[in-house]
């Protein structure tokens, strides 16, 4: 493989004499058919090697809530031709819970394959490779022979770790290339130039072995974007072009500091980061991926924003579990992607519910009851006035046809506020009665059950009515539908 034409490693304070000429030569005006304007072909940003770390203390004071600054510079949305989801359940997700067994990993991988469909909406699945259990799981998943999700690895930035990737027969691996001065200076104890050169050597080693490197720009939302990120990524793109092997860029919002707001300033602006990587660092959309965390409740919207501004891949985990507050939930990314593109024929969203049941029963995973799409109560109503609406037309209070798309028909929990309509809806849902067969809220048996519910709460009850209790009342008051109640 040919070596890089221009090295980043310069003596401190020395600037290459041909920098200006090089900039002018590369900044040619070319016609862009997308915007129908003449545009500069590319930009050159020299690496800014500082003697001290730049920690953006105005934005990240640490003893206060981080600040969201605005420079009111707006970049255009630049959605890629194709967008997809990548998974890190078995890498980042496993940093937040006990490791999955080999069987659990293979079963979940199989379900992800069915969820993402043959077209590969779930394009890749990332694995650790360090333990014997990790490697056995990878081997068994590879034996399935699926094109999607493609199995990729994750390694430290050490040449010896490539042996693991090569031995497992993987074509791509993630490499940790920390981007912020918090990591470069305070963790790695290096200068920016030293860090960049060490990363580039690792990437060159991967390319020489024919492995696609995926560079994880850790903590990009606290990094000096034009002083380190862009010049470093420009070097990576040079290596990619020289080798003929795509070098991928994963923009990692490691602490969840990213914000989706138009006009927000760097380093926190998701639109600014993604557009800058595309426009200034010349990263093709299909080589760009967003990886976020949910520390500030923005993991999903930030990932969706990354798609809109030019990133093809959004990385997530099943149910969003991951380190600290977790990652974008894979099921949320699937639904958001379908919302953007409108084609539901390529995926099987009902598998989401299969995955939920598997995680609960086989993995012992506790799912928050109100979590969208997967929680026990996400399409359950308790209010009587809402239940009355659902009884008339479920579309009034249901987000979409959850029975069709998730095998989860809308439910009503009977409580003090459910009223007769809530009882009627529960009876019809429990018995599967529809159309002319459905019982109205004026049915005699329904009225009697509703009166029993009111009496329960009049006596001071504070809990919801259980399914078992309602079934018993159904046997008493609707014996033709529930069967005769046993006599003592």
Protein described:
This protein is of the alpha/beta class and 488 residues long. It has 2 domains: 84-361, TIM Barrel; 380-482, no CATH class. It is built from 17 helices and 12 strands. The strands form 3 sheets. Strands 3-4-5-6-7-8-9-10 form an 8-stranded parallel barrel, surrounded by 6 helices. The chain has a two-stranded antiparallel ribbon with strand order 1-2. A two-stranded parallel ribbon has the order 11-12. Helix 8 (270-279) links the parallel strand 8 and strand 9 (288-292). Helix 15 crosses helix 16. The longest helix is centred in the middle third of the chain and has 19 residues, at 225-243.
Stretches where pLDDT falls below 50 for ≥5 residues?
7-25
Characterize the biggest β-sheet: 8 strands, parallel, barrel
Q: What is the helical fraction, as a range of percent?
A: 25-40%
Q: Briefly note the structural class of the backbone.
A: alpha/beta
Counted by DSSP, the helix tally is 17
Spatial separation of the terminal alpha carbons: 86 Å
**CATH class membership of the largest domain:** Alpha Beta
Q: Could you tell me the CATH topology label of the largest domain.
A: TIM Barrel
In short:
With 488 residues, the chain is an alpha/beta fold. 37% of the residues lie in helices and 12% in strands. It has two domains: 278 residues, Aldolase class I (TIM Barrel), CATH 3.20.20; 103 residues, no CATH class.
């Amino acid at each position: 493989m040919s070596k890089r034409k221009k090295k980043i490693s310069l003596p401190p304070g020395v600037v290459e004499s041909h920098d200006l000429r090089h900039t002018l030569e590369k900044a040619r005006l070319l016609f862009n058919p997308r915007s129908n304007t003449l545009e500069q072909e590319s930009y050159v940003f020299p690496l800014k090697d500082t003697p001290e770390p730049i920690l953006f203390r105005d934005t990240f004071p640490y003893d206060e809530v981080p600040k969201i600054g605005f420079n009111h510079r707006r970049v255009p949305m630049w959605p890629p031709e194709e967008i997809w989801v990548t998974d890190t359940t078995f890498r980042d997700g496993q940093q937040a819970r006990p490791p999955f067994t080999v069987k659990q990993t293979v079963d979940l991988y199989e379900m992800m394959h069915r969820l993402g469909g043959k077209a590969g909406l779930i394009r890749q699945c990332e694995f650790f490779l360090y333990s014997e259990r990790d490697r056995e799981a990878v081997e068994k998943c590879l034996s399935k022979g699926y094109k999607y999700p493609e199995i990729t690895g994750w390694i430290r930035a050490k040449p010896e770790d490539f042996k693991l990737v090569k031995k497992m027969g993987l074509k791509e691996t993630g490499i940790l290339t920390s981007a912020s001065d918090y990591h470069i200076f305070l963790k790695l104890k290096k200068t920016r130039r030293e860090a960049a050169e060490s990363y580039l050597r690792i990437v060159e080693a991967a390319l020489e072995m024919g492995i696609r490197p995926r560079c994880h720009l850790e903590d990009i939302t606290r990094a000096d974007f034009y002083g380190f990120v862009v010049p470093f990524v420009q070097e990576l793109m040079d290596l990619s072009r020289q080798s003929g092997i795509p070098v991928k860029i994963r923009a990692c919002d490691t602490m969840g500091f990213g914000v989706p707001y138009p006009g927000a300033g760097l380093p926190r602006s998701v639109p600014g980061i993604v557009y800058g990587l595309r426009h200034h660092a010349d990263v093709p959309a299909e080589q760009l991926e967003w990886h976020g965390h949910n520390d500030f409740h923005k993991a999903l919207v930030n990932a969706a924003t990354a798609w809109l501004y030019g990133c093809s891949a959004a990385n997530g985990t099943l149910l969003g579990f991951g380190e600290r507050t977790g990652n974008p939930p894979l099921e949320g990314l699937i639904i958001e992607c379908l919302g953007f593109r409108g084609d539901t024929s390529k995926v099987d969203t009902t598998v989401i519910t299969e995955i939920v049941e598997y995680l609960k029963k086989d993995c012992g995973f506790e799912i928050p009851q109100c979590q969208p799409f997967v929680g026990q109560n996400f399409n359950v109503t308790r209010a009587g006035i809402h239940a009355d609406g659902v009884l008339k037309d479920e579309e009034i209070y249901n987000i979409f046809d959850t029975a069709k798309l998730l095998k989860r028909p809308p439910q009503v929990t009977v409580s003090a506020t459910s009223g007769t309509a809530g009882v009627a809806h529960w009876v019809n849902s429990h018995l599967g009665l529809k159309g002319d067969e459905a019982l109205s809220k004026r049915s005699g048996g329904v009225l009697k059950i509703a009166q029993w519910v009111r009496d329960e709460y009049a006596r001071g009850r504070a809990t919801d009515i259980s399914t078992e209790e309602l079934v018993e009342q159904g046997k008493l008051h609707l014996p033709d539908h529930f069967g005769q109640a046993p006599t003592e």
